[in-house]
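Quick one, T. Sequence first:
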Amino acid sequence: MFHRKVKPCNTIPIRPSYALQYALQNVLPLALTRNPRTLSSCGCLPHLTISDSCHSTMKQCIDICRDCERACLETISYCLAKGGKLADPARILVLQNCADMCATCSKFMISGSKLHTRVCSMCSEVCTACARDCMNMQEDAQLAKCMESCHCCAKSCGKMGAFLDCKLIGGGRDG
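Structure tokens:
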């Protein structure tokens, strides 16, 4: 087993602008590795390992969530620019909710939250609803692209939500 010590939290410069950068550079590589690694025991970063069978599935799900978030945000801009039926406030709300849920879901997986399977299940539901809404206008190329991205994300998050082997071992974060 390979152990990596992380600086105690009181020496890590955590600023709002650096928090995500720190997580992406330090927490994600440790959480998504094939070799179990130990994080700081200071209480802020718990001991965390992920089973081998989960490694590629989680990384792929994070990437798919980010792609879906991007597709929804691009579609919002497209719909607002086109106007008419495409700019219906209900459609914009569904797209925004889907983008927000995908961002939240990827953050839960990156942070190592024990609740990531629940969030993934919810993300799957939100993406399914968004894909259903986009299906009503699938003759439009941008909405068809968004619908496909939402279907892909719903499927991937549905698997993560039901993937019992993908539990954090050694006590992940509670939230």
